[in-house]
Amino acid sequence: MRQIFFFLMLIFLSPSSFGQKSIASKKQYVIVKSTFDFLKQVNRYKANSFTKFLFSKAGYEVYLDNEELPGELYYNKCSALYVDVKDKSNLFATRNYIELADCNGKLLFTSKLGTSKLKDFERSYRQSIRGAFSTIENLNLIYDSFSSQTILEKKQKPKEPPRAKEISTPSSVVSNATIEKQKKTSTMSLLRAQKSKTGYQLINSKNELVFEILNTSNKDVFIIKNKNGVLSNKGNHWLVEYYEKQLLIKRKLQIKF
Questions:
Q1: Which residues, including other chains, have CB under 8 Å from residue 201's CB and lie 6 or more apart?
Q2: d(Cα 200, Cα 149) in Å, to the nearest integer?
Q3: Closest CA relative to residue 190, chosen from 201, 210, 204
Q4: How far apart are CA 85 and CA 32, in angstroms?
């Protein structure tokens, strides 16, 4: 009878035991800054490696941000808690506090100030940082809360809608944008040419200057002054071609020389 009792107890206790083991075996990552802003050098006075030591002693798997990371953490840096140490020292004491944040820089927790009046910098920072670390209550709860929130955000992250397939347009089809870029040739205008030192001035019926054209070595081709274009003789009319705001403008003209 006693053997049966122990056998039943073993059956009921085993699932819970395995569950605790799986939770305990889950790695908890912490990444510590390798250079604190107020010290301006990598691991100066060993303040960074000492901070790493404190979190490692508390049971976490800790890395400085300039160290090689394990694959699991390298490809999922948001699974780690990020640690930085801030400074509020004065002439009389070294004073530091610790900040815990997620991978996006969102502040999760700020410790109380740790202080030290030791004259040796390395010992002073150690004492101050240790004092700040001792004020972090329920570190495991902070980590678990952060970890749970990270998992929840991953689940709630909306999936990207499927991209529509690109339909290739046959080269024979001209897009609207192309049509707009090529302005249609306007109706033919009649202009009067007045000779100038370098070519001609083209005047309209209102006696307004429309174009000033410059001579070239070809009597049937002129350069349009102050415009990126030319005027050319097409037999029964003249054709103005120039660019305006990256658009090609074409105009047929009748010119009376």
A1: 193, 194, 209, 211, 212, 213
A2: 78
A3: 204
A4: 9
Q: Mean pLDDT over all residues of the chain?
A: 80
Distance CA 173, CA 105 (A): 51
Alpha-carbon gap, residue 34 to 70, rounded angstroms: 17
Q: How far apart are CA 230 and CA 223, in angstroms?
A: 5
Distance separating alpha carbons of residues 215 and 200, to the nearest angstrom: 8
Dig out the tokens for 125 from the structure.
Answer: 């920072």
Return the structure tokens found at 124: 């002073």
Q: Could you tell me if 50 and 98 are in contact, meaning their C-beta atoms sit under 8 angstroms apart?
A: no
* Kind of pairing between the strands at 186-195 and 247-256: parallel
> Within a 13 Å sphere around the CA of 30, how many CA atoms are in the beta-carbon half?
24
Q: Coil, strand or helix: which one is 143?
A: helix
Architecture of domain 26-152: 3-Layer(aba) Sandwich (3.40)
* Structural domain spans, the chain: 26-152, 181-256
pLDDT digits (tens, 9 = 90+) for 80-121: 999 999 999 999 999 999 999 999 899 999 999 999 999 999
| Pairing outcome for strands 107-110 and 61-64 | unpaired
